[in-house]
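Study the following:
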Amino acid sequence: MILFIATVAGSESVSLISYKVSLLTLGSGRLIVLNNLRVKGQQYRR
């Protein structure tokens, strides 16, 4: 991941990179929350 950011840094500005990283972290956070909700829902059904 660090290498990917470093290579992108050569062609884009730091603000764009930080913006993309924040979007990635937000997206992954939402996926984790959704997965946790699914697991909890399955446990409650049982």
User: Anything to note?
Assistant: The chain has two helices and no strands.
